[in-house]
Write a sequence for this structure.
DNA sequence: TGCAATTGCTTGATAAAATAAGCGTTTGCT
DNA sequence: AGCAAACGCTTATTTTATCAAGCAATTGCA
């Protein structure tokens, strides 16, 4: 359903298999606060904090704010429901290649199912 | 010399010949706080507040943050050869799920390669 | 199996953001 | 001139973000 800042941050962290304390070390944001953020207990985090995390996770800052509902989406591009993991800036070149291959594979399968 | 949030916001407001109270009405941020912001008495404003103002003044949010020294200048935007394949509108929900799982797997492997 | 480290999380304290109220000054109107 | 409204700003207060400490549960290893 609704994308929240918590979901996005948690997903980004788990995707990288980092613990809250590892993120604390790398970002300077305390693990206690990170937990609160991930559980959507913080309503208006500072731009600084949000930026640190977007930088660490390599996700676009604007996108993070939009998806988190902090701001209404700017342009039309009428889909907010997107998943972050794949905004291409999140992926290394190699990962991208492999994912595309895998996607081809998935679609190839699907075709046979019909 | 130094660009500060205060200077930027004040300049933007005066350019439009708005009073603090007019900005308050249009943005929802109190005039008292606006004054503090313009005089650089606030160190870490929330993303929400900053965004409201950037929107009202129609200035780029990232630029505001950079100029305000909240973030360091973002480097190469050369990554913007964005890949279509993964922009979420191209994926079914199921595909997205599977791809995330696969990505987790990829990164899990990678981590063990230390 | 058992101890130690690590996990995510809650809670209490503190610092800071954000507001409401009010100040003295300036502007505009009759 | 004189009143009223609007101005930017300061201060007091409320609200919120953020952190340090510590919890129970899980994991890793001898």
């Amino acid at each position: 359903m609704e994308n929240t800042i918590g979901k996005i941050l948690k997903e980004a962290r788990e995707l990288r298999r980092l613990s809250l304390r590892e993120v604390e070390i790398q970002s300077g944001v305390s693990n206690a606060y990170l937990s609160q953020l991930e559980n959507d207990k913080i309503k208006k985090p500072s731009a600084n904090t949000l930026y640190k995390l977007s930088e660490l996770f390599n996700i676009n800052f604007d996108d993070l704010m939009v998806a988190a509902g902090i701001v209404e989406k700017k342009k039309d591009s009428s889909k907010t429901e997107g998943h972050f993991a794949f905004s291409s800036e999140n992926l290394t070149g190699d990962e991208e290649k492999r994912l595309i291959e895998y996607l081809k594979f998935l679609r190839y399968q699907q075709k046979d199912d019909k």
